Amino acid sequence: MGTGLSWKDRYGPWALVAGASAGIGEAWAREAARRGLNVVLLARRAAPLRRLSGELAERYGVKTIVLPLDLSRADSVEVLARRVRGLEIGLVICNAAAIPVDPFLERGMEEHLAAMNVNVRAPLALAHRLGAPMLARGRGGMVFMASLSASMGTARVVHYAATKAWNRVFAEGLWVEWRKHGVDALACVAGTVDTPGMRASNARSMLGAQSAEAVVRASVAALGKRPSVIPGWGNRISGFFMERLMPRKLMIQLLGGVMERMYPRPDVKGPLSGNRRK
Amino acid sequence: MRPPSMARPGWAGKVKLPEKYGPWAVIAGASQGLGEAWAREAARRGFHVVLVARRGPLLRKLAAEIASTYGVATKVVVQDLEKPGADERILSAALGLDVGLVVYNAAKSLIGPFLDQPLASHRGELAVNCAAPLGLVWHFGRLMKKKGRGGIILMSSLSCGQGSPLVAHYAATKAWNLILAEGLWHEWRPHGVDVLACVAGTVDTPAYRQSRPAADMKPMEPRRVAREGMASLGKRPSVIAGFGNKLSGFAMRRLLPRRLAIGIIGGALKKMYADGPRGKRGASCCG
Ligand SMILES: NC(=O)c1ccc[n+]([C@@H]2O[C@H](COP(=O)([O-])OP(=O)(O)OC[C@H]3O[C@@H](n4cnc5c(N)ncnc54)[C@H](OP(=O)(O)O)[C@@H]3O)[C@@H](O)[C@H]2O)c1
Ligand SMILES: NC(=O)c1ccc[n+]([C@@H]2O[C@H](COP(=O)([O-])OP(=O)(O)OC[C@H]3O[C@@H](n4cnc5c(N)ncnc54)[C@H](OP(=O)(O)O)[C@@H]3O)[C@@H](O)[C@H]2O)c1
Question: How confident is the model at residue A266 (pLDDT cuts 50, 70, 90)?
C-alpha cells in the first residue's frame, strides 16, 4: 500500500494467473502484462497457454512461464510451488474454477471432490503458500473469483455457488488481516460474464453479460480499496435487490426458477420448470 | 409434495418427525456442546440416534443416557471426520438403518490470523467443515431422494454473513455450508427431502468456554439452538437461531454496507480474543 509505489512495484514483478487459458483469466493475464508484470500462466491445456504466452511476450515484452497443471489434483499447489520457487510473485489471481451445471446428485462424488479441489482447496493453498512471502515483503495482491450466484443457495449450481461463497467470505476476511501488512485481498463478485466457459454451459440466456475485460478493469480499480467488488452497475443493483431487499426464501425460489429455465433438464422435476419441455 | 397420509398428527399435535422422515438420525459431531444437544433433541422427537465423533467414551456415555431417558435405540460410531473416506465409513456403519435425518454439526475452528496456522491445519479444517458434509449429504441425500423422504441439517454461523478476520477461513467454510444447504433446499423439496442451514450466533458450548473469550457475547443455550433448528426444518432454507441473532443478522446483511459490517465483526472478534484465543483445541465461538 506504500504511497507513491507504482502499480508494477506494488504487485510485481511476477503475477500468477490460475485459469489463464480462457475467459476472465486470459483477460487478467493480458492486463497484468500490459501493466508490465511478468506472468505465470496456469491451466490444464498447454496449447492456449503457449499461444497466450507468445502474444504477451511479443506485445508487452514481458517474461512468461507456461505451467500446465490440473488443480483438481490434491498435490497441485505443491507442484506449483516447486515450479515457481525463487520467483517474486506479487499478484495472484485465483480464477480457475470447475463449474458443473446440473442438479446436485447428477454429478458423482468424484466430480464434486474435484470441484472442491479446484474452487476451494487450491485457492486456500495459494493464499497460504504465496500469501506468506507477500506479507513478509509487505506488498502484493490476491484476487479471488466469486459470483453473484453465491449470494444465496442456487439451484443447478448448488455446489459451485457454495464454493464461490467460500471465496467471497475468505477474501473479505483476508482483506482485513492482510491490509495492515500492505497486501491487498479482493473478492471479485461477478455477474454473468461472456466467456468460453459461460457459452459452453449452454445457458439459454446471457442477458446483461459483461465482457471479461470489464470485469478485470473493475477488479483492478477495486484492488486495495475495498474487500469485494461487484463489477457493473446492473449487477450491483441486482445484488442489492437480491441480498438486501428480498426475503431470502422467496429469492432462493425465484433464482432457482430462473436457473431451471436457463438450464432445462427435461428428466428432472423442478417446481417451476417441471414438465415444460415434455 | 408429500403423501398426506404421512402427516398424521401425533405428539403435541405435530407431525412426528421420525414418521415423516424415517426412524434413524445420524448426528455427526455429537460428543459435546451443540452436537450433544442435537442428539438429545432428535431423541426427544423420537428418533433413534447414530452418534458420530472421535471420542468414543463421551459418545458411549451420552448414548446410554439418551437410551434410558428417551427409550430410543442408539449406535456409536467413532470416526475422525477429517480423514478422507469418513463419509463412506459412516454410510456403511449405518447400513441397514433407515436414516431419515442427518445433522452435520462437527466443525474444526481455527482462531487467529490465517497465516499463523500451518496449511495442513487449514486443510484439516476444510476436510471437517466442507469435504465430510459434502460426502454425507451426497450419499444420504441420494438414499433419501430415492425413498422420497428425509431431512438434512447443516450448521452455519453468523460470522459467515461477511468476511471475518481471525476466523477468515472458518467463516468461509460456514458460508459454504449455508449456500449448499439453501441450494439443496430448493432442489430436493419436490422430492420430499428437507434441507436446512442452521445459522448460530455464539453458543454456550465447551468449545466456546474453552476459548475463554475476553468479551461476554451472551451465548445461547445449545438446547435452544437445536430446538429452533429442528422446528425450522422443512419450513425454510435457513434459520438464524435466536431473536437477538436474527436482529443482528438482519442489520449486518441487509442494512450495513458490507465493508462496514466486515469492520464491525472484525472489531468484535478482536475484542473477544484480545490476547488471542486461550483454548487448546480449536473453538467455534465466533458468533
Ligand atoms: N463466466 C461467468 O459468467 C462467471 C460469473 C461469475 C463468476 N465467474 C468466475 O470467474 C472465473 C472464470 O470464469 P470463466 O467464465 O472465465 O471460466 P472458463 O471460461 O471456463 O475458464 C476457466 C479457466 O479455468 C481453468 N481451469 C478449469 N479447471 C481447471 C483445473 N482443474 N486446473 C487448472 N485450471 C483449470 C480453465 O483452463 P483449462 O480448461 O485449460 O484447464 C480456464 O482457463 C471462475 O472462477 C468463475 O467462477 C464466472
Ligand atoms: N459455539 C458457537 O459459538 C458456535 C457459533 C456458531 C456456529 N457454531 C457451529 O456449531 C457447531 C458445533 O459447535 P460447538 O461449539 O458445539 O463445537 P465443539 O464444542 O467443538 O463440538 C464439536 C463437535 O464436533 C466433533 N468433532 C470435531 N472435530 C471432529 C472430527 N475431526 N471428527 C469427528 N468429530 C469431530 C467433536 O467431537 P470430538 O472432539 O469427540 O471428535 C464435538 O462433538 C459447529 O458446526 C460450529 O461451527 C458454533
Answer: low
Residue B17 lies in a domain: no
Residues of B involved in catalysis: 170
CATH number of the CATH domain containing B238: 3.40.50.720
Of A207, A276, A223, A258, nearest in space to A35 by CA: A223
Contacts of A89 (CB under 8 A, 6+ apart): A14, A15, A16, A40, A130, A133, A134, A140
Task: Please report where in the chains the cell 480464477 appears, as a residue.
Answer: A95
- Is residue A270 pLDDT above 60, yes or no? no
Q: Mind listing the pLDDT tens digit for each residue in B143-201? A: 999 999 999 999 999 999 999 999 999 999 999 999 999 999 999 999 999 999 999 99
CA–centroid distance, B207 to ligand 1, in Å, is: 38
Query: Between B119-126 and A122-137, two packed helices, what is the crossing angle to 10 degrees?
Result: 150
> What CA–CA distance (Å, rounded) separates B20 from A214?
50
Q: Quickly state the pLDDT bin for A143 (edges 50, 70, 90).
A: very high
pTM given for the model:
0.94
| Residue B93 located in a structural domain | yes
The complex scores an ipTM of: 0.94
CA dist B18 and B47 (Å) reads 6
C-alpha cell read off for B282: 480449536
B8-32 pLDDT tens trace: 444 444 679 999 999 999 999 999 9
pLDDT at B2: 42
**Residue B120 placed within a domain:** yes
pLDDT given for residue A207 in this prediction = 76
Ligand 2 atom showing the smallest separation from residue B225 Cα: 10
Largest CA distance in chain A: 63
Interface of B with A in 151-210 (CB under 8 A): 160, 162-169, 171-187, 189-191
Q: Domain tally for chain B? A: 1
Phi, psi (degrees; rounded to nearest 5) at B281: -80, 155
Cell numbers placing A167: 471465496
> Which 3 state secondary structure label does DSSP give A185?
strand
Domain locations in chain A as residue ranges: 7-262
In a domain, residue B143? The reply is: yes
| Domain range for B151 | 23-281
Scanning B103-252, the segments in alpha helix (DSSP H) are 119-126, 132-147, 168-188, 206-210, 222-232, 243-250
Shortest Cα distance from B102 to chain A (angstroms)?
17
For the CA of B175, the nearest ligand: 2
- At the top level of CATH, the class of A7-262 is alpha beta
- Neighbouring-strand partners of residue A76: none
